[in-house]
Design goal:
The complex is a heterodimer. Chain A is mainly α. In chain A, 77% of the residues lie in helices and 0% in strands. Chain A contains 14 helices and no strands. By secondary structure, chain B is α/β, with parallel strands linked by helices. In chain B, strand 1 and strand 2 form a beta hairpin. Classes of the chains: A mainly alpha, B alpha/beta.
Chain lengths: 324, 293
């Protein structure tokens, strides 16, 4: 222990000596440190500048052509689609079984064939008309229910209870019930579609209404707006980002439910839709036509999203600065 | 020096006695108003027995520290809150609910609906309250937009404007409605100091031209003295009237002047109860000097 103590003492003494030596070497540094305490900036001369009018020259820098092309979102999305098609083609060639996985080229041939003969287009038209009917009815009901929820306490409870009960219920599970109630016509499909659209849209719209800021509400009431006019002029535009999100979700649910319902349900009033086309061709083992039908479903989904919804967004919420 | 004394005596006993008798021509009469907030635990009293009157073409300022209920009082005058005691009368009629004859300019920037262009925003109260048809509303909106100096931005959307421009659009929108009384709830508080000064100047110029009645809420003593011609001092927790002071003799050029600063100090003392006034310092003049022989 004595040795340890003496060792520590030695260490301490040596550190002190080193510091002293360092201090003497950095004597100038020490005095520099001393000087920073009393450092003050020199006093420079003042000046004024007469500002001539400023004309902005063309400051735009030329970006390379490739970069400018890549900036377009549709170019990037097309590249992604082409890559997926290539992967599909290669996988199908490796698989080599036409029945299980037709290649991209076969599917494309069946697709173009369907369009040229008009068969595919007719089926798509039938499906879309039913969809639009169900979608519009669902929108009207959703707005009615949400307006009630915003104005009255009972409406709020009604909306909350119904949504939590019926939103998780898959629309396709209601199909046998609706067949029983509405028969084999179009109405049973529309009933199922309305169910699939209504709850998601009502929930999103209500959440959007609740998110409208207090200042905007007060400003609306200040102008004398009440009731339905208040909802139409203030709440709906202010909640538009949420409403558009609800519309997109509702559309996706409805389209999905419709194709599934047509697969299960079959033809409505003697004319089948796209789901029926897929079902029939599966039965007849025309797998390439099945894939063509699936491709039609996908293409319609892509078109509605990129042509319809994104243009609506561009003209409304993006232009107003309410959404990036 | 005399000017200082005059502004002090302007709100002495005599005036207090006069205030007890309601003036027949007062535009806004607030009598014994108590405002309360209900929370789940208890009821909080925001203001207690507040009474004041606003005459036509008055620039009446509600001034006080935070918690004195001045914004609550403004909302009650606008009709968003009902007083639990007392009455609020505008042009003889009791205020029950919000309406377009009392337009409020709020503090927040998002008071302007972002989905309308500037000119549509200025037209919006006129169309929503069905005061005017579209062509006349457009003309009046252009007129007031020119008054605030934003004619070049008539077709811009609010999210592209700066804070000061948004405040100006809100003021143009309020003026276009030609309301009986214009209510402003700390409208310049969220702006930077330079813009705030410019906006105060523009507001005073607009008032010179249009001579609207203004009820202005602020927490800044200087702003109150510059913008207002009468100031109601409110003390916090709960809000009660502490004093009413005249400030019609001050404008933006009086900032930094001796009487201005004396008034500001007096207001500060009244609000924060810092004891008696210090003896007013007199400048020594030649006649005051006595030469000892």
């Amino acid at each position: 222990m004595l040795a340890k103590a003496s060792h520590l003492t030695l260490q301490w003494w040596m550190t002190l000596r080193l510091r002293q030596q360092a201090g003497s070497h950095r004597g100038s540094a020490l005095t520099q440190r001393d000087n920073t305490m009393s450092l003050s900036p020199p006093i420079r001369e003042e000046y004024e500048v007469e500002l001539a009018p400023f004309t902005q020259e063309d400051l735009a820098r030329e970006t390379p052509l490739l970069q400018r092309i890549w900036q377009q979102s549709w170019v990037r999305k097309t590249v992604i689609l082409i890559a997926l098609a290539l992967i599909w083609e290669i996988a199908a060639r490796i698989q080599g079984n036409d029945l299980l996985l037709p290649s991209f080229i076969d599917t494309a041939k069946a697709f173009i064939d369907g369009i040229v003969t008009g068969e595919l287009l007719a089926k798509v038209w039938i499906s879309l008309t039913v969809l639009v009917k169900g979608y519009l009815i669902g929108i009207v009901l959703a707005f009615g229910m949400t307006t009630l929820a915003v104005s009255t306490q009972l409406g709020r409870d009604l909306l909350g209870t119904l949504t939590s009960m019926l939103n998780p219920l898959p629309a396709i599970a209601l199909l046998p019930l609706s067949l029983l109630w509405f028969g084999l016509g179009e109405n049973s499909l529309i009933f199922v579609l309305v169910h699939s659209v209504l709850w998601a849209l009502a929930l999103n719209t209500y959440a959007g209404f609740l998110g409208v800021s207090e200042t905007q509400r007060m400003a609306g009431r200040n102008y004398g707006l009440k009731g339905i006019r208040f909802v139409w002029y203030i709440l709906i535009p202010a909640a538009l980002p949420s409403i558009l999100a609800g519309l997109k979700i509702g559309w996706a649910f409805a389209w999905r439910t419709l194709i599934a319902a047509e697969l299960v349900f079959g033809a409505s009033s003697g004319k089948g839709g796209l789901g029926w086309y897929i079902f029939q061709n599966r039965n007849e083992l025309y797998t390439d036509k099945v894939f063509a039908g699936l491709a039609a479903v996908i293409i319609i989904g892509l078109m509605v999203e990129n042509l319809l919804f994104s243009n609506v967004e561009r003209l409304t919420v993006k232009r107003w600065g309410m959404q990036r | 020096m005399n000017a200082v004394l005059q502004s002090h005596t302007a709100s002495d006993r005599l005036n207090a006695q006069q205030a007890n008798q309601p003036h027949a021509e007062a535009l806004l009469q607030v009598q014994g108003v108590c405002l309360e907030y209900r929370t789940p635990e208890r009821v909080v009293r925001a203001t207690h027995q507040v009474s004041f009157e606003v005459d036509p073409a008055d620039r009446f300022v509600l001034l006080g520290p935070s918690g004195c209920g001045k914004s609550t009082l403004l909302k009650a005058v606008a009709g968003f809150i009902t007083p639990s005691e007392g009455q609020i009368r505008l042009a003889g009629q009791q205020v029950k609910e919000p309406g377009p004859d009392r337009i409020v300019v709020f503090q927040e920037f998002d008071q302007l609906p972002p989905w309308k262009t500037v000119i549509e925003n200025v037209m919006f109260p006129l169309l929503a309250s069905r005061t005017l048809k579209r062509p006349e509303a457009l003309e009046r909106a252009r007129h007031y937009l020119e008054k605030v100096g934003l004619s070049a931005f008539a077709d811009a959307y609010p999210h592209t404007l700066s804070g000061g421009m948004k405040a100006r659009v809100a003021i143009a929108r309020a003026l276009a409605m030609q309301p009986k009384i214009l209510l402003m709830d700390e409208p310049f508080a969220a702006l930077d100091a330079l813009t705030r000064r410019k906006m105060q100047e523009e507001l005073l110029e607009l008032w010179e031209e249009v001579r609207f009645t203004l009820l202005f809420v602020t927490h800044s003593i200087e702003e109150a003295l510059v913008v207002g011609n009468r100031i109601l001092l409110l003390s916090p927790h709960p809000g009660r009237v502490r004093a009413e002071i005249n400030s019609h003799q001050y404008d933006l050029k009086s900032l930094g002047g001796v009487d201005f600063q004396a008034s500001a100090q007096r207001i500060h003392r009244l609000l924060f109860d810092e004891g008696e006034a210090p003896a007013v310092e007199q400048d020594l003049r030649f006649q005051d000097i006595r030469i000892a022989y």
